[in-house]
Amino acid sequence: MATAHNEANLGDIAKTVIMSGDPLRVKKIADNYLENVKLVNKIRNIYAYTGTYKGKEITIMAHGMGMPSAGIYVYELYKFYGVEKIIRLGSCGTYVDNINLLDIILVDKSYTESNYAYTLNNEHVQVASSSENLNRIVEKIAKRENINIVKGNVCTTDCFDWYMTDLNKFLDRIPKELNIVAAEMESFAIFYIANLLKKEAACILTVVDSHYKKQELSAEERQNSIDKMTILALESII
Asked: Can you tell me the distance from the alpha carbon of 157 to that of 112, in angstroms, rounded to the nearest whole number?
């Protein structure tokens, strides 16, 4: 069945989906890594492609920026399309001195100041966990492929942290016991929905800027920085 946001029919979308914010990043992954590719959604240019990777059916789909956008697509995939597992590939900024540009982070838990869970489900929840099962698989594949990853907790923000009027005040509010290493804008919603609907979700991030070191990648460098984590996600799925 199609939804207001997804024109794919039942059966067009695989049980496992790799998602990323940028539709062009999704197209690049589909073009470079999948065989027998079919475009199954293009509403609002939120592309979804279904094909095979080493014989395994998989869908690659965009989710846009921010929890409201990602939450719509993730909820519909789980609820209406029978998707069981989602792995998000994204970018993040780090706040700590021992993480560098282009490092890969496997997210354990996501913290947010948002009322996303309260609005969606009348529940005051600020921390959502990824799938332990999926994370174990990703860690196993990372070791096999000799890809260095950092497993840690991140903060999911409602706005781009570089535009905050006082980032230090925001950082001071984050619970210190969570040991937040980076920030991005979608994973809390993805994890929360997965847990709510008894599905699985993981998130793999590439570091594209560092507040600690005052460094950031260019837009082109961000676009081209996804190959390692793409291999990590694809190999984990099969």
From this structure: 6
**Closest by CA position to 43, among listed 78, 69, 80, 79:** 69
> Is 227 in the active site?
no
Distance CA 212, CA 91 (A): 16
Spatial contact of 156 and 183, defined as CB atoms under 8 Å apart: yes
Strand partners, 109: 129
| pLDDT tens, per residue, the chain with 238 residues | 689 999 999 999 999 999 999 999 999 999 999 999 999 999 999 999 999 999 999 999 999 999 999 999 999 999 999 999 999 999 999 988 899 888 999 999 999 999 999 999 999 999 999 999 999 999 999 999 999 999 999 999 999 988 999 999 999 999 999 999 999 999 999 999 999 999 999 999 999 888 766 767 776 666 656 788 999 999 998 8
Q: Of residues 22, 103, 161, 209, which has the active-site annotation?
A: 209
Is 0.70 topped by the overall pTM?
yes
Torsion sign over Cα 175, 95, 99, 125: positive
Provide the token pair at 150.
Answer: 């950092």
Q: Domains in the chain and their CATH numbers?
A: 16-237 (3.40.50.1580)
